[in-house]
Structure formats: structure tokens, C-alpha cells
């Protein structure tokens, strides 16, 4: 099988790279640092974690710890490759270098579909919050407004995306840090008006694992998918002032960020609240916890934070999807029209990603019971497919880097190759659990079908020479 290698960006004396195809270094280090910090705090954590708590009980802390460890390993692998070769194509570029254009095509376009669909979903979620405050206003109008605002933001200079994400991330980080501080004070019994709950909620409502191993499995699956989106920082790094430094810094701090924001907040919530409290799923775990503490207006403030998290995710996903599409086209793996750059921005790629998001919103209104659920199922396991491509690419490229350019190994995967194999076994285990669970089995099959179709197209393109970068 022939392999097609993407052209590497030209090296600069400062250790950074020059983005290919006219992209600029418009993101400052402060932008990238805050994107890395706030990027792990998403709607999946604020909203989706409620279903995980309802299934696993206090054991959700264990579920987030296990899946968090897997994500740390994946981010370390991705960081090793991205620090050595920063690219707006991120894992897709690495997969192409490792296995040929078919791998870059498959992983890249699957991720593009995932992000583009997510843009529409986040718009719908944000609109629901606003219509809750302003009943009677049409939900579709808010979705359209949000889409237009962030489409416009991403059509302008990349620094506009960076500024939006900087302040969005700062607000999210501040809010969750305050939440953790209040929660710890309440647990210790030193917050005015509260008594320490002790271990009553952790062990007294059916035990640490009230629904046994089955509940833990559901919680584990919920936690895995809430981590999606952390890859954006390696995409954004290619347009930063110093990509190598930015990637290295983001990856090296990933461990404490995951431990603090995800595992720490889950521990606070299930200690403060009974896991089977209906408010956990009805209001969301963070709002429910703050309401439980009796802090006036705190629940509504957290709803504002959830809205910000959704809008931040919209902004980041439009950016990420457009850059992945641009990179694929630049490497000869997509329609050339999407590769046109104007003012340092791939504007047609931005418009294509936003258009797909609008289509998804339309499907939600026109076909909420048929086409839209099918689309959701199709992207259900894409993040795991991407992680597998990251792991196998790192296995292949690490040896090559050690032979050809060992000085580029600024970030090194821990315990190579053993921990890479451990991560792959973990991903295979999650696929097995998805196949066992009736609720996720359809997602597994739909994602698998999409991946196989993309791989087949990619292989045909590679064999016919259509996948060669121009």
C-alpha cells in the first residue's frame, strides 16, 4: 500500500512553525493558555454529568477518574506528536504521516462531522436556556442569532476567536473554582448556614455503588464522552505565536486540570447531595448543589455559566471544524474550494462548517424522531475513533522521530510503548461496553458504519492518487 506524506510546515528559528496555506500566527500565548485551561470545562461537564451521577451514584467519581486517566494518556500522546509537528490538522495530519492519506482522510472528516453536528446541538441547548428566561420567544431565532454571531467571529481574524475564548474560558474557570471553594467549605461545615454532610451521601444512600457494576459502566460511558473537545488546543496551537511551547504547556498541565475540574467537582457534588435527588438531573448537578446550599441566586448564576459554556463550545467547534477541513483540503483530501484563505482565515471552510450546523438545527425541528436521532447516533463514538487513531499514530511515529529528529521530542509519552498499549486496551474495553449496553449499541454500529465508509473512500482516493497533496 502506498503512503502519502503531508508536507511539513517550514521551521522557524524560535522553534515554532509557519502555518501552511496562508493561516497566520494570530493567537497569543495567553489565548492558548486559557483555551487549554477552559477547554476542559464544557457543557458535557455542567449538564451531561447529571445522567452519569443518576446511574453510578457516588461511584461517578471513580468513573471520571478512570476515564480521566485514559484522556490524560491520549492528550500526552497527541501532545508528543503536535509539539514535534504543529499542524492545524492535528491528529489527522499525524495519522496521514503514520499510515497514509486514507487515515488522515478518515479521522479528519469523521471529526469534522462530529464538530459540525455539535455546533448545532450546542446552539439548541443555549437557546433552551434563554427561552427559559424569556418564555414566548422562538427557540429557532436564538439558535440563528448564536450561529450568526459565532460564524461572524470566526470569519474575521483568528485573534477574534482567541479573544472570545479567552474571556469565555476565564468566566468558566472562575465559576467552577468558586463552586469548588464553596463546596469544600460546606463539606467542612465552615460555610455559614450549612452543616457538614459527612459521608452520609457517599455511603448512606445505597452505598458507594448503589447500582452495582452496571451503574458504574453507564457512568463510565457518560464520563468518557464529556471529555471530548480537548483536542482543540492542539489545532489552535498551529496558529499561535509559539506552537511548540503552547502545546507542551497545555499537555503538561492537563493532568491537574482534569483532576481538579472533573474529578474534584464530581466528588464535591456527590458529597453534598444525595445521588438520587431528582434535582441532579432536572436542574443539572451544579445548579442543584448550589440551590442545596441555599445561596441566593446561585442556581441562576450557574445557569448563566452553563450558557457561556455552550456558547464557548459553539465558538470552539466552529473554529476546530473549519481548521480541520482547511487542513484536509490543503493536503489534497477534500474539495479545493474550502482551502481558500482570505485575511488569514479559511472563510469558505468556516461557512461550510456553519452551514452543516444550521442543517442539523433544521433536522432537529423537522425530523426530531427520525433523521436527527440517526445523526446523533452516527457521531456517538467518533471521539473514541479519533483517540484510537491518535494512539496507533503515536506508536508508529515515535520510533520514526527517535531515528530522524530526536530533538523534536519536546513532549514525551510516559512509559512508551507500554502505556500507549494500555490506552488502546482501555479504548477497546469501552467499545466492548458500548456493544453490551442497549442505549449505546446503536451509536457504536452507526459510528462504525460511518468510519468504514470514510475509510473505504480514503483508500480508493489513495490508490488512485486523488489523496496526494498538491
List keywords for this structure.
Amino_acid_permease_CS, 72% helix, Amino acid/polyamine transporter I, membrane, amino-acid transport, transmembrane, 470 residues, transmembrane helix, globular, disordered N terminus
What does this structure look like?
By secondary structure, the protein is an all-alpha fold. It has one domain: Amino acid/polyamine transporter I, CATH 1.20.1740.10. It has 20 helices and no strands. It has helices at residues 29-38, 43-56, 60-84, 90-99, 101-133, 139-155, 158-188, 200-203, 212-226, 232-236, 243-252, 254-272, 279-282, 285-293, 298-330, 347-366, 371-379, 382-404, 418-436, 438-464. Helix 3 (60-84) runs antiparallel to helix 12, helix 4 runs antiparallel to helix 5 (101-133) and helix 5 packs across helix 16. It is globular. It starts with 28 loop residues before the first helix and ends in a 6-residue tail after the last helix. Residues 1-19 have low confidence and may be disordered.
Regarding CATH, which class?
Mainly Alpha
What structural category do the secondary elements indicate? mainly alpha
For the sheet with most strands, the description reads: none
Instruction: Tell me what portion of residues adopts beta-strand conformation.
Output: under 5%
Rg from alpha-carbon coordinates? 22 Å
Number of helical segments with 4 or more residues: 20
H/E topology pattern? HHHHHHHHHHHHHHHHHHHH
**Quaternary organisation:** single chain
Counted up, domains total: 1
CATH architecture title? Up-down Bundle
- CATH names the topology as Amino acid/polyamine transporter I
* Count of strand segments: 0
**What overall form do the CA principal axes indicate?**
globular
Amino acid at each position: 500500500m502506498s503512503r502519502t506524506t503531508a508536507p511539513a510546515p517550514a521551521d522557524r528559528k524560535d522553534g515554532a512553525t509557519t502555518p501552511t496555506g496562508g493561516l497566520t500566527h494570530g493567537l497569543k500565548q495567553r489565548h492558548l493558555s486559557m483555551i487549554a485551561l477552559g477547554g476542559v470545562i464544557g457543557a458535557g461537564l455542567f449538564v451531561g454529568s447529571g445522567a452519569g451521577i443518576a446511574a453510578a451514584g457516588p461511584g461517578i467519581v471513580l468513573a471520571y477518574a478512570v476515564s480521566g486517566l485514559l484522556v490524560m494518556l491520549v492528550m500526552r500522546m497527541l501532545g508528543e506528536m503536535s509539539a514535534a509537528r504543529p499542524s492545524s490538522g492535528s491528529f489527522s495530519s499525524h495519522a496521514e504521516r503514520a499510515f497514509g492519506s486514507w487515515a488522515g482522510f478518515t479521522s479528519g472528516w469523521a471529526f469534522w462531522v462530529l464538530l459540525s453536528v455539535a455546533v448545532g446541538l450546542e446552539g439548541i441547548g443555549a437557546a433552551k436556556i434563554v427561552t427559559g428566561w424569556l418564555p414566548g420567544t422562538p427557540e429557532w431565532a436564538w439558535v440563528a442569532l448564536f450561529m450568526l454571531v459565532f460564524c461572524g467571529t470566526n470569519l474575521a481574524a483568528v485573534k477574534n476567536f482567541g479573544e472570545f475564548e479567552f474571556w469565555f474560558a476565564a468566566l468558566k474557570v472562575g465559576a467552577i473554582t468558586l463552586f469548588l471553594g464553596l463546596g469544600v467549605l460546606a463539606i467542612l461545615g465552615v460555610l455559614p448556614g450549612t452543616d457538614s454532610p459527612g459521608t452520609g451521601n457517599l455511603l448512606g444512600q445505597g452505598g458507594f455503588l448503589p447500582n452495582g457494576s452496571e451503574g458504574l459502566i453507564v457512568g463510565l460511558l457518560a464520563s468518557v464522552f464529556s471529555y471530548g473537545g480537548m483536542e482543540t488546543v492542539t489545532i489552535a496551537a498551529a496558529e499561535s505565536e509559539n506552537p511548540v511551547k503552547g502545546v507542551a504547556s497545555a499537555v503538561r498541565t492537563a493532568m491537574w486540570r482534569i483532576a481538579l475540574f472533573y474529578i474534584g467537582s464530581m466528588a464535591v457534588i456527590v458529597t453534598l447531595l444525595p445521588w438520587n435527588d431528582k434535582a441532579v438531573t432536572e436542574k443539572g448537578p451544579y445548579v442543584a448543589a448550589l440551590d442545596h446550599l441555599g445561596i441566593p441566586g446561585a442556581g441562576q448564576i450557574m445557569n448563566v455559566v452553563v450558557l457561556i459554556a455552550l456558547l464557548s463550545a459553539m465558538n470552539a467547534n466552529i473554529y476546530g471544524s473549519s481548521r480541520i477541513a482547511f487542513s484536509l483540503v490543503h493536503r489534497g483530501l477534500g474539495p479545493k474550494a474550502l482551502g481558500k484563505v482570505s485575511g488569514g482565515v479559511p472563510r469558505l471552510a468556516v461557512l461550510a462548517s456553519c452551514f452543516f450546523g444550521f442543517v442539523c438545527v433544521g433536522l432537529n425541528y423537522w425530523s426530531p424522531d427520525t433523521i436527527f436521532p440517526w445523526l446523533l447516533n452516527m457521531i456517538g463514538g467518533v471521539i473514541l475513533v479519533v483517540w484510537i487513531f491518535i494512539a496507533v499514530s503515536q506508536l508508529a511515529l515515535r520510533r520514526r522521530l527517535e531515528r530522524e529528529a530526536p530533538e523534536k521530542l519536546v513532549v514525551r509519552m510516559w512509559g512508551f510503548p507500554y502505556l500507549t498499549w494500555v490506552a488502546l486496551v482501555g479504548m477497546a474495553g469501552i467499545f466492548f461496553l458500548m456493544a453490551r449496553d442497549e442505549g449505546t449499541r446503536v451509536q457504536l454500529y452507526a459510528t462504525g458504519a460511518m468510519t468504514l465508509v470514510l475509510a473505504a473512500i480514503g483508500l480508493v482516493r489513495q490508490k488512485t492518487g486523488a489523496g496526494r497533496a498538491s
